[in-house]
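Let's study my pick:
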Amino acid sequence: MYKISTALLLALTLTACGGGGGSSASTGSTGGGTDATSPALSFSPAKVTGTFAAGTAFPINVTATATRPADFNGVSNVYVLIVDDAGVIQANPTITAVSTTQYSVKVTTQTSLTAGTKTGNFSVRVCKDSACAAQFPGSPVALPYELVVTPKA
């Protein structure tokens, strides 16, 4: 089973405009992100990296963009669940809307991480309900990380 150390169930308001417009970014799909196999989100950076000392909290800042905005037409709330099986990040992420399809995500690492390289994926689930019983197409989306924790000075 999952160890969910970061369970952020946050209602996000995605107000998709009626035009449905496409994106000029290449997401591996055509027609404005309607490919059922494409991920629901893209991340910038695409991989979380950083180096910090053990015993400190390292800030992680990622921009998440809905790659399939048409999936959210007529939807007033979207719930996001971040699953962190390894217990790398704290359970208090902040998500701020940059636009109707783009969000700034800020989290920090646990101060209890020991020295060494921590690698894995955060599983970001984009859900239709607060219990995350139903996910949007293209969810979950893996956000890879590689964090180097140096010994305390």
